[in-house]
Amino acid sequence: MKRMALTAVGLFFALAVGVGVLALVQPAEPSYRGLAAAEWFEQFRGGDTNALTAFRQMGTNAVPFLIHRLHTQSSQAERWYVTLWQKVKPAWRTKLPPPPATAENALLAMGLLGELGPMAGAAVPAVCSVLVTPPTNSVTPGGPLRFVKLPNRIVPGGLTSIYLSNESLRYQAANTLAAIGSDRPEPLFAVLEVAKSPRADFFFGAMPQRADWTIATRKALPELVRATTSPNQNVRSVALGLLGKYGLTERSALLALARASVSESGANANNAAAYLGNVTNHFEIAVAALVASLGATNAGNSVGTPLDGGLKLPNHFHGEAARALVRLHPRSPLVKSALLEALAHPQPGVRAGAAHTVGALGMEMAEAEPQLRALHSVETNAPAQFHQAYAVLRLSGDARLFMPHILATLTAPSENSRWGALGLLAQHGAGHEDVVPRLMEVAEKDPAERVRARMATVLGLLGSQAKTALPVLRRMLTDEHIFVREAAEAAIRKIKASRSR
To answer: Concatenated DSSP letters for 362-418?
Structure first.
């Protein structure tokens, strides 16, 4: 009996010490309409939207309380208190302060901090900590799914359910930082840290798109520029994205993007070039970098450049750089002079890209036609010659230089390229003596039924010029696909009608 009494006294003493420790680590609680913040917090956990109003009214006084709920990594004293709190009778628990924060509490607290907006700026470092190092106790392996109700950012005053996980904690942290700290550099530093994580791709792009980070980017500029040379590709990608979206007015940001457009590969190179196409000052940096990067081809940007009629040529130049130059042209006269000079560049990729860009600009570059014709006659690089001929077609409407390239594409491995070449023949094939013989060679043999049907259609559009193709079209009347037979029948009618006129 005496031993039990001593045990009870010891337990009571331990609880008293625990309460004292917890009181020291917990901030003083604000209240609203007679209820303490902790009570409103529990009502919010249950989905009571009145709790949103309560925390808004408590304002900055509620911030220390909510910051405490973000501390998902509890101390030894707090863990000891949780153990004791779980052992006491349920009736006693109501008389004691609740245990320290859990992952669920952190998610709820971030939702409430986001509702407070900029007045919760003091919580930025704590939320950054959750973003960088989410709690490890958010999900029990093999356990049931847990959902938490948070403020709906689309429907003010409403709640939405979010699945409790490390990813959702980071996602909510990003949302909260956008609401409370978009003018501070700490969130951007945190994003760079998260970019090193194996799961960083989960929220790439989510954070920057939820607020205007221009002021924060300006404050973090030196660190972001340094991050563009990080050995970690994801870190470079995040830094380039922030500089490209929010730092284009800064010279050092443009220099970093210019370097990346030439030295990077894949998506990073494409994105850097695309951002340079949006500049509104320092055009000399952007134009010089984009012209130089025309020759920086790699597997990431050689997916094909669309031409008229849907024809795609596998890039032999940096396609995104060419598109960026087209966008820059109305804003800077430097583009025209740089392209005219680049047409004779010693690097074939730059020549091909410059010719293609000149063609894409059309009649605005009409003065380049004589130079393009002269270069085409002596060009030794096939891709560059292709784009020179394409540019002449775009500037003058003369398809003679480009026609051999179109006809050669009729047997290209890509079905889409063959389809696109036929579209160009429909526009420019009339009057060219090599078109009908070439179509007669391939019309019946193409493996794609839609391409065979379009070949028949193009022959019909050529009218009497295609009269020698009538035997081929008659044989196509027995094709296994009905729409090929219908296209051949229609083509025969058009050719006969044109002969009778």
So the answer is: GGGGGGGHHHHHHHHHH---HHHHHHHHHHHHHHH---TTTHHHHHHHTT-S-HHHH
